[in-house]
Amino acid sequence: MLELKNITKIFNPDTPNEKVALDDLSLTLEDGDFVTVIGGNGAGKSTLLNAVAGTFPVDAGSIVIDGEDITKLPEHKRAKFIGRVFQDPMTGTAADMWIEENMALAMRRGKTRGFSWAINDKDRRIYRQMLSRLDLGLEDRLFHKVGLLSGGQRQAITLLMASMNHPKLLLLDEHTAALDPKTAAKVLTITKEIVEEEKLTTIMITHNMKDAIAYGNRLIMMNSGKIILDIKGEDKAKLTVEDLLNAFQKAGSDGAANDRMLLT
After folding, report:
1. What global pTM score does this model have?
2. 234 in helix, strand or coil?
3. What is the model's pLDDT at position 114?
């Protein structure tokens, strides 16, 4: 479903601040893979997602989704292929619009627009049904502004919006990092249910080692723009936090296991 071939991204090239964020990185995801990505600060995790989403162009290599080369496509044209949830709950929704208006925008992402009512009773029934699966009481609040909701509620809605058109690829960029532990656990549970039920190919970045082990069928560890560990299936199920720390040490990454990772 996703092929990254020899991707390189260098920020501030030929300057004292040059930073190789992605270093000749190659990665293939099969249809339905749920991959968790872990690594220290500056390892290249978010740069990887930004490269796939088209937030910036890559300096070398190619990006292929479901057989289609999208390397040169701008970010807005990749929207029909990709759903994304950001770390900041404020980013994925329009705060001054109602819940149903936000969901209507998401439902029409990548589709041709016409002259008709934006939302009808059939749409509202669909939105209520989708919101009810969150078990947050939001199905009865369609006319509430999203900005009045809690961070966890907004992130849960953003997750629904990102997945409602069955994207070929779902990108989760530390989407629970800004939430309290109880709310984060709720959002992760919802994430797991949606990904499994919709059979979505997913990349989830996390700093939490336990979450990286507990979720998904495959785990990737990054350091200095490279993949230093790629483990799946039964081998992943046997992983421990100690195994991950040892992998960092073997890679010679003294600073990779930063305080944030250890504390979570």
Report:
1. 0.86
2. helix
3. 63
- Spatial strand order of the sheet with 60-65 comes to 19-29, 2-11, 60-65, 68-69
Domain membership of residue 47 (yes or no) is yes
pLDDT tens sequence across 71-120: 999 988 888 889 999 988 888 888 999 999 999 888 877 666 666 566 77
Distance, CA of 158 to CA of 93 (rounded, Å): 6
CATH number of the domain to which 213 belongs: 3.40.50.300
Tokens of 108: 């029409």
Q: What angle do CA 137, 139, 141 make, to 5 degrees?
A: 85
Residue (of 29, 10, 35) closest to 20 by Cα position: 10
In a domain? residue 158: no
**Residue-number span of the structural domain to which 184 is assigned:** 2-81+167-263
Q: Report yes or no on 113 lying in a domain.
A: no
Q: In what order do the strands lie in the sheet with 82-85?
A: 82-85, 169-173, 202-205, 34-39, 218-223, 226-232
Structure confidence by residue, pLDDT tens digits, 229-242: 999 988 888 888 88
Q: Which of 81, 39, 72, 75 is nearest to 253 (CA)?
A: 39
